[in-house]
Amino acid sequence: MKKITLFIILFLIWMAFSFNLETANILSGVFAALLTTLIFSSRFLTSWKKFYNPVRYFWLIIYIIIFVWECIKANFDVAYRVLSPRMPIKPGIVKVHSSLKTEIAKVILANSITMTPGTITVDIIDSDLYVHWIYVKSDDPAYYTKKIIGRFETLLKRIFE
Question: Any bridge partners for residue 128, and if so which?
Answer without folding.
Answer: 97, 125
